[in-house]
Amino acid sequence: MTDATKKIVRVQTGVRIEKRVLKVLKAIAARSEMGLGDLIEGIVLHSFEGKPPFGADTLDFVSQMKAAYGLDLTAEDSHLLSEEA
Questions:
Q1: CA contacts within 13 A on the Cβ side of 39
Q2: Where are the domains of the chain?
Q3: Which of 28, 27, 25 is nearest to 17 (CA)?
């Protein structure tokens, strides 16, 4: 049996993120029983390869959480965001 894990080095970072987006991400992480950092790493690694990070069941959950937290932002909004003064 071989060890398929990859040894990595993680760093602590301060990332600013929209409040409702963070709430949805935390809910997905909790549902998947993983840490928020692990979830974000997985999303990014999938995106780097042009692969969708979530299956249909998780996307259904995301829709529910977006509604619950009032998240109305879409991918089209990503380059149009500005912070309140």
A1: 17
A2: 19-76
A3: 25
